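User: We ran a pulldown and think these components assemble together. Before we commit to crystallization trials, I'd like a predicted model of the whole complex to look at. Sequences follow.
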Amino acid sequence: MDTLFLEFFQNTGFYLCDYRNIIMIIIGLGFIYLGIAKDYEPLLLVPIGFGMLMGNIPIFKGLGLGIYESNSVLHYLYFGVTQGIYPPLVFLGIGAMTDFSTLLARPILMLLGAAAQTGIFITFLGALALGFLPNEAASIGIIGGADGPTAIFLTAKLAPHLIGPIAVAAYSYMALVPVIQPPIMRLLTSRKERLIRMEEPREVSKREKMIFPIVAFLLCCFLAPAALPLLGMLCFGNVLKEAVVTERLAVTARTSIIDIATILLGVTVGASTQGDVFLTSKSVGIFILGAVSFCIATACGVLFAKFMNLFLKSKINPLLGAAGVSAVPDSARVVQTVGQQEDPTNFLLMHAMAPNVSGVIGSAIAAGVLWSLMAKAM
Amino acid sequence: MGITIVFSGLVLLSFVIAQLHKGLDLYENPRKIKGWFSLKKKPVKKLDNSLEVKEMLLVLTEEQKEIAKQFALLVSTLEDHFSLPRLLELARISGVKNFHSNLNILLKSDILFPDKEGFFCWDQDLYIETISN
Amino acid sequence: MASISDVLKKSTIFNSLEEIDLQRIIPLFERRGLYTGDVLSTAGNTAQYFFILERGALLLAMEDGKSVVLATLGDFIAMELLSDRGRYKTTMTVLEDGMVFSIPRLSFLDIIQEDTPGAAAIMQAWQGYLDQTAPFAKNIADIDVPAIF
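Assistant: Here's a predicted model for the assembly, 660 residues in total across the polymer chains.
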């Protein structure tokens, strides 16, 4: 009887558990709490948090239960992450719900999206200096793009063993945009600059909105072919949206498809974040560098806007540079909030959407560039 | 090198987009191309913002329709019977373009109408009909 | 561009006046341009002029948020619509470019205080006009005491 009970107990999670499982489960619970109770990016944090719970239940190896066991259900679902399937589907949905008209009305704001991607490359160099391998450094740098699907896509290609910490870092910083960005924005701008009112954007025709994704896709992918999966799906989604005749496909892309991809991406990434990989000094380094990358990206966007103002007749509010970080639409909302703290009648949200969506394009191109550079080096 | 590629791509894209609406305008108005080659200087008809009254429904330009939408948003924050000077002030602080003239257009189109008690009302049905035309 | 004579003849306030009465008051009027956004009167300031509209549109903002928009040829902006005891009680803003004719307030009050048929006709027409245009602006019991404007 005692032997039977002992055998039973030795097969339970209570016996197989170690301190790392407990810590990861607590972190997972924390993510769920932040998502549900505090409303911090719930569509991302809840699946990732629950995935962490699933991935850190102590199990008996060999039964095809764990995400890293080749015959498990979670492993099959994880295939979409490791093979880079889910992120392009998410981008399809993003393209199908994005309105590029503010960008088309004032194309110069696109440069702010480009400037914000500087953080990616500076962090890449910093990570190399700290001893990370080039492919690891590229995956860490992309966190500064503040684009979860892009970060996961690139990491899956270059450093799949780091998907867990990088995804958690990327999504955590995206959720913390309203906390991280404002101090940087205030530090780098004067009150007078924050009060700058933007010129009313011109009217954009339906035809322009229709042609833009096709032109953008051809131009950017000819320049950086490795951006094809992400940028291609983003532009395709936008074409579906703007070509009214394919409205039902656009609706499917921005509802069912993106939701399915987000659920599976989140839960499998969370499940892959296991204690032995996550609770290491490398992860701490990734988190710190990720934060640095994010801060540099914000600062570069703001500083570039100030630089542009030296040459522009119609000045840009430099706060818009912070929206070049592609956390859509949170960083645009942060710009609006910080601007309104100085002048409640200054509505910057609409203008901030231009660099915000340009940042999505910029981070996709940056990911493609890093992938092609690292692929050649590997 | 990486950031150079990203920058180049977006600079090129922004340049192309900046020319896109001009190209489309030429495509839609090919007479403008003929105008470039015309030796005789033709007087340019100045477009004004005057409205055509068409079957009792005012025809607004696209810009006027957009501004009407902004006014509709402001009106939605007010009571059913609201103060017109208050609406004008809200339009001013919200940065609505040419808010005096555009308010006048809404009055002329009867989208804004007096209630005889010193306040004004918004005709939502007429507004929708006007901006749909 | 209409003359003051044309405007007065088309105005419901003055169109019943005899030609001789019209000729008396015409020289008192002065043409002024209206430009969108201009403020012709500010509530609280000393009331110096009354106005008759040739063309354009004017927003008359009164107390308690009430207002009226005048945009018809011959609309007369005076007395209860504009002033009270020598001070403007209305802020008048131009909504559309146009033209007005202004008459000094004291000159007009002198005319309507005369014991003449013309003055009586003006005041009677004025009451009818006010009832139609801005009945909420009526706030006096005795219409025979125009000096309070």
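Chain A is about 70% helix and 0% strand. That may be worth checking against your pulldown data before setting up trials.

User: Thanks, that helps.
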